[in-house]
Amino acid sequence: MDSPTSLTPTAAAPAATEPLVIMGAGLVGTLLALYLTRRGHPVHLYERLPDPRKAGLREARSINLALSDRGWRGLAGVGVTDDIRKVGIPMYRRVMHDQRGQLTYQPYGQEGQAIFSVSRDSLNRTLLDLVEAKPDMEITFGQKLTQLDLPARRLHLRDVASGREYDVPYQRLFGVDGAWSAVRGAMQRLDRADYSQQYLEYGYKELTIAAGPNGTWQLEKNALHIWPRGNYLMIALPNLDGSFNATLFFPYEGSLSFDSLRTPEEVEKFFGDVFPDVVPLMPELDTEFFNHPTGSLVTIRCWPWSYQDSVLLLGDAAHAIVPFYGQGMNAGFEDCTVLDRLLDDLGEGDWGRVMDEFERLRKPNTDAMAELALYNFVEMRDRVADPRFLLQKRIEAKIAAQYPAKWLPLYSRVTFSPDTPYAEAWAAGQKQDAIMARLMPHIQVEEDFEKPEVQEMVKSILTE
Ligand SMILES: Cc1cc2nc3c(=O)[nH]c(=O)nc-3n(C[C@H](O)[C@H](O)[C@H](O)COP(=O)(O)OP(=O)(O)OC[C@H]3O[C@@H](n4cnc5c(N)ncnc54)[C@H](O)[C@@H]3O)c2cc1C
Ligand SMILES: NC(=O)C1=CN([C@@H]2O[C@H](COP(=O)(O)OP(=O)(O)OC[C@H]3O[C@@H](n4cnc5c(N)ncnc54)[C@H](OP(=O)(O)O)[C@@H]3O)[C@@H](O)[C@H]2O)C=CC1
Ligand SMILES: Nc1ccccc1C(=O)C[C@H](N)C(=O)O
Predict the structure, then answer these.
(1) How far is CA 204 from CA 164, 257, 296, 313, in A?
(2) pTM of the model
(3) Nearest to residue 9, comparing CAs of 350, 346, 353, 356?
(4) Any idea which ligand is nearest the CA of 58?
(5) Pathway, per UniProt (predicted)?
(6) Which of 224, 227, 328, 338 is 20 to 30 Å apart from 1, CA to CA?
């Protein structure tokens, strides 16, 4: 994890009575609230949407999420892992489905290592329950931030139900209002604010693979399923009720695209041709395809993430990434861990310093994660269908077993490390890719790895 270096702790400030304001009660906002309240601060959370626990399910997108070690560490810091573990399903491997319905497998890590499928809604509700149980915590739902006066430290909010508009002063504001952050929007209008957004030419559509009789799973339960098709892909993550949430990542335009599938017949023909094994398990395919929204996919980078000592962006508001590594929420949870650690190390006497240090530590790592997410897009839609790639992964696992001190696969560094900085993982992964490019021409089948000349080559490369 990003750790502060050679910093002198400053004296902790007396507990502030004015609440810290958090804008956005999504995944990261609620976790952040738990961290800040644990430090003795009153917290006021504002959220644009109604309380999901009262309003029922909205038409949620990204229905389930992969939670991995960084996310678990973030949850562990406020002692809530047990609550979440109850609603998670471990996924130990990728299962690839080819066009004839044949399966290949790729374990995520070592025996017993898994990423967890959790429902966004359960996670959000659980975190909200935990937040609400704390004293000195206020959550106001249905309040949308419409304007932010940064120099005057004043929020302008609209009560969504009544339309009433009002101002709220603050001393410290945490902008955790997601990829389309209004807090960031205000900061972007300042002098020397950098901002970029890059959309993929792909969108995503969420679909359902039905549960079998008595809530049984019709595909392997403890796995993440992938239908890699070169230029596009579908994935599926398991739910507790026996269903799977499938997501099609597909071009917006072109000969095979959202644009080209206009009728139920076209959708059925397309799915029947390219995903034949799963179509019989998707009885609502047509309705869902035409009724569910098509989501866009974007990488957002900005700088700075803070304003004086009064505003800090975290989570997607600071670094929205495409979902292909399953790390957006995990990175946001890691933001909370890093901020908490900085507050321990630096004290709370100088928030400006804490905020500066936070963005300095986090930015290179979330930039690296943005690259990794794009890298995994190509891997998931294309490379996992290539037997040579799967062979390479098996060889990497053998190298890791033989030289554990020298080789940890990139996926493990990103996913199964609670704290390796993303930038360090990405740099090591690029080096490993270069090594594998030298080695693989000498390996045609798995047994070739045992040949003395290959063993010699591996040894010599690793000691270079
Ligand atoms: C298809 C898909 C799959 C994904 N899969 C994974 C995965 O497997 N693993 C993973 O780690 N990540 C995944 N992600 C990323 C993950 O969803 C995000 O990183 C995560 O939701 C970010 O949390 P957040 O709290 O920063 O933002 P959000 O969860 O978006 O929360 C922001 C909150 O702020 C509120 N808000 C917004 N604007 C305002 C305003 N003006 N006023 C008041 N409130 C406001 C919103 O209503 C929302 O509740 C996925 C994303 C997508 C799209
Ligand atoms: N990096 C990525 O590719 C993606 C990341 N995500 C993350 O997951 C979170 C939850 O996703 P989900 O529930 O689907 O949220 P939504 O995509 O439904 O977005 C929530 C709100 O953000 C605003 N919004 C959405 N798309 C855009 C856009 N292209 N430009 C400007 N504003 C937009 C809209 O606000 P209004 O109604 O006021 O206009 C919308 O109602 C998001 O907040 C985001 O952080 C989600 C999708 C893609
Ligand atoms: N949650 C996701 C959402 C969309 C796309 C991929 C994921 C993944 O989790 C991929 C997984 N990490 C993998 O590498 O197989």
Answers:
(1) 35, 11, 6, 26
(2) 0.95
(3) 346
(4) 2
(5) Cofactor biosynthesis; NAD(+) biosynthesis; quinolinate from L-kynurenine: step 1/3
(6) 224
